[in-house]
Amino acid sequence: MSNKEEKPADQNQSTWKDFIFNPRSGEFMGRTASSWALILLFYLVFYGFLAGLFTLTMWVMLQTLDDNAPKYCDRVPSPGLVIRPKTLDIVYNKSDSSKYSHYVQHLESFLQQYNDVDQDKKQPCVSGTYSIQDNETLPKNSCPFKRSLLGQCSGLHDPNFGYSEGKPCILVKMNRIIGLKPLGDPFINCTIKKEGSDFNMVYFPATKNFDLMYFPYYGKKAHETYVQPLIAVKLMLEKKDYDNVITVECKIEGSSNLKNDDERDKFLGRVIFTVKITE
Amino acid sequence: MGKNDSYEVFVEMERDGNGEMGAKIKKKKEKKKERMENMKKEIDIDDHQLSFEELEMKYTTSVTKGMTSTMAAQVLERDGCNELKPPKGTPEYIKFARQLAGGLQCLMWVAAVICFIAFGILMGQGNLTSYDDLYLAIVLIAVVVVTGCFGYYQEFKSTNIIASFKNLVPQQATVFRDGQKFNINANQLVVGDLVEVKGGDRVPADVRIVSAQSFKVDNSSLTGESEPQSRTPEFTHENPLETKNIAFFSTTCLEGVATGIIINTGDRTIIGRIASLASGVGNEKTPIAIEIEHFVDIIAGLAIFFGATFFCVAMTIGYRFLEAMIFFMAIVVAYVPEGLLATVTVCLSLTAKRLARKNCVVKNLEAVETLGSTSVICSDKTGTLTQNRMTVSHLWFDNHIHSADTTEDQSGQSFDQSSETWRALGRVAGLCNRAVFKPGQDAVPIPKRDVVGDASETALLKFTELAFGNIVDYRNRFKKVCELPFNSTNKFQLSVHELEDPLDLRYLLVMKGAPERILERCSTIMIKGQELPLDEQWKEAFQTAYMDLGGLGERVLGFCHLLLNEKEHPRGFGFDVDEMNFTTSGLCFAGLISMIDPPRASVPDAVMKCRTAGIRVIMVTGDHPITAKAIAANVGIITEGSETVEDIALRLRIPVEQVNKRDARACVVNGGQLKDMSSEELDDLLRNHPEMVFARTSPQQKLIIVESCQRLGSIVAVTGDGVNDSPALKKADIGIAMGISGSDAAKNAADMILLDDNFASIVTGVEQGRLIFDNLKKSIAYTLTKNIPELTPYLIYITVSVPLPLGCITILFIELATDIFPSVSLAYEKAESDIMNLKPRNPRKDRLVNESLAAYSYFQIGAIQSFAGFTDYFTCLAQEGWRPLLCVGLRSAWENAYNQEVQDSYGQEWTFAQRLYQEYTCYTVFFVSIEICQISDVLIRKTRRLSLFQQGFFRNKVLLSAIVFQLCLGTFLCYCPGMPNIFNFMPIRVQWWFIPVPYGILIFIYDEIRKLGVRRHPGSWWDKELYY
């Protein structure tokens, strides 16, 4: 680093070679060894001090942070919406299992944490009310979301999640945000963007809503066993819909504090994905 | 002498082209030589040898009626206007293109192109996530173009200053056409026109004189000789330059009237040819231009070096090629100080404005600083050091030398005026004088009034007017009977008057002239009102006084008078000056009056200032050596106690050859000696004698003197006014033309114009130039500092893969918006110490940007600022949910536009847009940190050595308002609605403004410690490494 500062030194007086190493004065890059040692020592002390100061301030700053919740949530006032399988373009051949097996596997592994066996261990909550736990006790109790609630899309009855029959399941999930308490009764509504194609969509649970008991979220440390509520959408595609690219938009509705029409953020309270199934 | 001088012009120029002098200008040599040949050929004008009839034939004109207007129109069409064409400048578009193609600009172009390419590729691949790259490219181009326009505008404006000078007064000329007299614009004159020129006019073209009445011209602008030259219709010499029947374009007519036929117009005139020759002399690059170039090269080199290094690093780490290219671009944007050139230009033009208020108009902005590094000033005498007005300085009467008041505003002490002799002497001086004031000047102070008459008569007129009051009235009381004007054969002037007292019928004869001639005619001398016989003793006293006054370089006149015998010359006596039928001997000697062009009152102080500032003042004049030496001694160019070789020889009574030349500090060289000198001898002379006066030099020799000074490593400022000065003005590091007396050619060639022709203004300029050098240093140090906190985010981003802490657009905002005003405000900083007591800077050693400045700004203050930025950045991220350790290596997930659920340290999931706004928040926080640190930075840059408490916090009001402005602009950028999506600024929490404050205080304290060490231990390791 320090040799950079040597560059402005006078170049026209000595030749380039002399500048790099001058055998007469023993100067290397315009400085003698002792001069280099001194200046490097100076910078060592200087940067050592700065680094120390930096570490100290960082440490102090980290001490002021809460372990469970960030100090501010300025940039995440409203959650994003995502789907499983984790892609925005679902394209496969329904007769070729190798083409969709990765979707199926993905869904299966994702749903592992929702296995009824695990969820049954949790204390049930009161549906329709926030699970507010503002006391100091840790870990916080989390409400169960059983995989079986997803019915045909739970993978319990149809291990292929409908992919093999051309009626794929999509899981819709809302991003976790600490302390978020949705107002009203938020539910998912999916629509087909492209006109002309029309097919049924079946929601699991059929109420299409995220129960308020899953809110608020207390952060990953306090709320270790927390699972997000899910809504499965089964696209009941028919033969006429095959080979077409179908665009579906799912939105969260029915809640005044969950935005779903932000101009800049296309994933805030909504998600758009395409499906194309071939035979 | 005069004739030799005028020939010398070309001898000198020739030597320039062929001799050893010219060897330096190798490139132009051949071309110049060729032109020289052409010129010699062209000078073979034979018009002066032709008879009037032949002349009439040749130009289809008439020596009595002039041309016909139809013919004149034809010739005008053929030859074009009668004016000097300005030397062909560079075409405007090239000038503009040059502004866009500097070192830094080229880098910015490259960066913009990379942005475009990146944008194009992303769009081609169809994974366009934002228009940022396109946006950035456009901003970069806009920056280059806007700064280019700015620079072009500056250049354009300074060119215009000159243009306005030219058009100030359209010259008029009196011409005869179709037998009638017209007044037309001089540029409409054509070859063959019959023109009339009278006293005060400028000769409108090269003119063959047809008729003349006591016609005298001042050829000083052509040949440098200051003696008026008479012009007559007679052909006196084969050489057109020496013959008396040609008057040259742009010379001024001092007195008399003449008519003549124009033989050459415009660029074909002698002066036109010389002017075009002057444009062949290479213009020297200004020291500041060299400095800036030097430093821009380093910056550009370092930017490329950093960019390339991190390009390679990025490639080896495993980034894709396109990403690596974008990194390269970003590093270039971060490292290049975009606002610097604008800052420098603004600082210089501020000083230029300040100088303009002090009567120095700067044509070339960079010349402002050149003045500051000037180590030698070659100054003219007449008009620059002196008042350019003959003034009575000493009188000798009653066997005493009395000093008169020579100050410009008559504030000095006058002599005792009670003596009877003085009254007699004053009466002679007042009466034997043909000069009169031009009418309508009653409001003007007497010394400044315009007078018709020659220089010494003018001086005497003003002197007597001051002494006696209304001299016109006085002369009316002594009715003039007859007079004999001064002529060069008898060297005296006399007039005969009736006496004031109407009852006294005697006539009074008054006479003035060369003292020895006057003395010859005297038999008595007036001492204390008594007429005493003029014996040997008085004659000796006279001789001593005469020698003394002459030794002062003054022009001495003798005065005598006589009351004519009433019997021999009764009332009504027919005085006849041709016959001299009256007594002109046995007069009574009244006294001597000596005159000099006195130094301007402010000059001795200014020269003294130069001396303390380590600047050598060399006088170069066309005047007589004795006068030159006297003025030089008077103004302090030759200091008290300094002797020339001749002085020493005189004092020790030994021959000049035996004097040890090293003992003589002063040296007076005249043009004749200079002509025979080799350049080595001249160098030796300049090296050995600190106090030099060149007398009797032609303007061409000025060029030789300038070159010699430059060979000795000096930065030379040259003053000049004549056309022939223009080569020297161009050759000088800074040419200074005189605004009042200067010719257009001189003003064209100069870098600076002194509106008041006053030497003292140059010294003001030097002071301002030195100040701006210091302040530019501070400005640049300030500007460079922030490049490190702009660069480090990228380095950390690439190597540690944290979310980007600072965006390119934000960087441009720091460079071009918030920090411009503070960096300019440093130009208003007062000097830390008396800069006029320091030696001029050594252009080879004292660089504008030196190693320690760069090291201190980059590696120390810049480093502290970077730490401040990162502290604030990590704090902001941590408080929003992203702890520092999580951030490391986060980049690929963070920047993945398809990942809408990136988890922060608390398990929250963020969409891409949310992360992007968080990133903008980081930009803003980093921006605020840099701003806060820069406030501290601008404060510490106020001084380089003194403590800020010594310099005063609040002295520089502009700087304070700049800080306020910077804060307001920063606040506006942060909190104005709409900013997030336009310029990537986010409203940030108020406490994040205060996180960098401790670092700002640290910068301040650290710099105070540095300055303390520098002040306490000059020459120590600390001083050497940390003083910039």
From TrEMBL, chain A:
This is the non-catalytic component of the active enzyme, which catalyzes the hydrolysis of ATP coupled with the exchange of Na(+) and K(+) ions across the plasma membrane. The exact function of the beta-3 subunit is not known. It comes from Acipenser oxyrinchus oxyrinchus. This is Sodium/potassium-transporting ATPase subunit beta. GO terms for cellular component: sodium:potassium-exchanging ATPase complex. NCBIfam families: Na_K_ATPase_bet (TIGR01107). It is a single-pass type II membrane protein. Belongs to the X(+)/potassium ATPases subunit beta family. It is found in: Cell membrane; Membrane. GO terms for molecular function: ATPase activator activity. One of its GO terms (biological process) is intracellular potassium ion homeostasis.
UniProtKB/TrEMBL annotation, chain B:
It is a multi-pass membrane protein. It is found in: Cell membrane; Membrane. Residues 22-49 form a coiled coil. The keyword Ion transport applies. GO terms for biological process: intracellular potassium ion homeostasis; intracellular sodium ion homeostasis; potassium ion import across plasma membrane; proton transmembrane transport; sodium ion export across plasma membrane. Keywords: ATP-binding, Coiled coil, Hydrogen ion transport, Ion transport, Magnesium, Membrane, Metal-binding, Nucleotide-binding, Phosphoprotein, Potassium, Potassium transport, Translocase, Transmembrane, Transmembrane helix, Transport. The chain crosses the membrane at residues 100-122, 134-153, 295-319, 325-348, 959-978, 990-1006. Residues 46-120 form the Cation-transporting P-type ATPase N-terminal domain. PROSITE patterns: ATPASE_E1_E2. One of its GO terms (cellular component) is plasma membrane protein complex. Pfam families: Cation_ATPase, Cation_ATPase_C, Cation_ATPase_N, E1-E2_ATPase, Hydrolase_3. One of its GO terms (molecular function) is ATP binding. Belongs to the cation transport ATPase (P-type) (TC 3.A.3) family. Type IIC subfamily. This is Sodium/potassium-transporting ATPase subunit alpha. It comes from Acipenser oxyrinchus oxyrinchus.
